[in-house]
Amino acid sequence: MAQNNNTKETDFDTSNRLKEIKEVLKKHHITRKLSPEKFKNVLVDLGPTYVKLGQIMSMHSDILPKEYCDELLKLTSDVPPMPFSDVKEVIEKAWGCPIEDIVESIEENPLGSASIAQVHRAVLKNGKNVVIKVQRKGIYDVMARDIGLLHRLAKLMPPIGDLKNMVDLDMVLDEMWQVAQQEMDFLREAANFQEFRHYNKQVVYVGVPEIYTEYTTDRVLVMEYIDGLLITDTKELTARGYDTDEIGSKLVNSFIKQVMEDGFFHADPHPGNLRIRDGKIIWLDMGMMGRLSESQRKIMIRGVESIALRNVSMLENAVIDLCDEYGYVDRARLYEDLKNFLSRYGALSFGSLSIPKTMQEIMDIMKNNHLALPHGVTMLARGLAHIEGDLVTLSPDLNMFDIAQQRISEKAFENFDIKKESIKLGKRVIRSSNKAIEIPGLLADVMQEYLNGEASTNLKLQISGPFAELVYTSVRNLVIGMCLTGLLIGSAIICVTDMNPKIFGIPFLGFIGFAIACMSTLFLIARYMFIRFIKKHRK
């Protein structure tokens, strides 16, 4: 009986929420043209859950139109905080004891409040200054319900502008739910902090807050309180003796290392998640992290190199290897699009390129050619956009492409193993030598087949018009030229022998060969002059 009541209550909540969604959609006249700004406003009116979904959706400029993603990037995570009584209830339920047993004091006003969680400053019984990240009460159930409703609405949604035609809404919703679930699991975030610390333990200018794992659960995260400066507070940083150009360079180097070497990077490095303390860049909030496999990293390095070398084929192969196809891919069109892309940057120096803008253009090309980026790369695009935004304030003269190119080059040199490379080179030389030794034998076989009348050549040209005539004439002249060359060489060889009979002191066959070659050459010259004369008088 109780189960039936719970089911009825859930159905009632779902029905009410669906009614609220319909009212919001009706208010914004959703069946008319859906502009990016209207889309953002709809999400804001639907509440904090949809704000978070909009933020996740903003990463998908490889699928969504760019203007929608740009507008969704404006969504803010700041939402009204939940009552402190709810905060206390969530913490005590997670710890299984009264909050006073572990915490000496806790500030009721949060340091920040977002759609999934809010953060409170506190002091533990052992005197440690910490921040406690507390998940919103019931947020998992609310988001799960809303995602289910969105799937239902996606099937019923009429065509709205070009959005439904350009996006697989079910696929985007599934990925958004996957990312949201990861963000709501604070044990995963704690593990992310530990993994990030492991990868960067040798980097003296990078730090992360200490995690108190004994007090951390899937809904409560307890970590060291960081009292450093905002990374974009350039005035205060300068006043305290910091070089903002140095900080900017180290920030980019750290991010490039995360991407290209570790394959584990911070996907949300906006200014609020970066602090400067004791000469170190402290990375905060690791709920949203990106991962790249080793093969993906190698492909991306090939892509960077292909842009530097302006090599269209190399870039095309990197794009095809990296992406998933969700429709017919016209390789000829893709090649032409990438060729035009590289030609636009042909006159620019490598250091003047903008990584986020360059990546966005490539993503637009992918979208137009039915290619979708893997999840990790879409998160990388978001991270790069944030890093460049940080640099605009911190050190506007720095260029990420320059630093990335230098770091990739240095890493390639560091990984260069002269012994291994020498072995590889030696193997190539041996293989090439073996093949070279076989060449005279192969040529002898070909000549023998030719002399025996066994050699044949099949040539099929599907051309017509003036081009066909040009090809025919070129091939004919080439064949005649080769025959005359062979005749001259053969005659010259015969002339150095004592073959009889002779004429004018040289072997008769050699004389005949020279005579035929000379007459043929004179004939061809005369024919060429005659054809030119006819064409001239026709005009």
Which short descriptors sum up this protein?
single chain; alpha+beta; 61% helix
How many structural units, i.e. domains? 4
Number of DSSP strand runs: 15
Tally of separate helices: 20
Q: How far is it from the N-terminal to the C-terminal residue, by CA?
A: 102 Å
Alpha-beta classification: alpha+beta
- Average pLDDT, all residues: 78
Q: How many whole angstroms does the radius of gyration measure?
A: 36 Å
Shape: elongated
The parts where pLDDT drops under 50 for at least 5 residues are 160-166
Taken as a percent bin, the fraction of beta residues is 5-15%
> Helical amount among residues, as a percent range?
55-70%
Query: How would a crystallographer describe the biggest sheet?
Result: 5 strands, antiparallel
Structural overview:
With 539 residues, this protein is of the alpha+beta class. It folds into 4 domains: 2-78 and 152-180, no CATH class; 83-136 and 185-225, Phosphorylase Kinase, domain 1 (2-Layer Sandwich), CATH 3.30.200.20; 229-416, no CATH class; 465-538. It has 20 helices and 15 strands. The protein has helices spanning 2-27, 36-46, 48-57, 66-72, 84-95, 139-156, 163-166, 169-184, 186-199, 234-239, 244-262, 294-309, 312-322, 331-344, 355-368, 375-394, 400-414, 418-451, 465-495, 508-538; strands at residues 103-106, 112-113, 117-124, 129-135, 206-207, 220-224, 229-230, 264-266, 274-277, 280-283, 289-291, 324-325, 371-372, 502-503, 506-507. The strands form 5 sheets. Strands 1, 2, 3, 4 and 6 form a 5-stranded antiparallel sheet that branches. Strand 3 and strand 4 form a beta hairpin. The longest helix has 34 residues, at 418-451. 26% of the residues are buried.
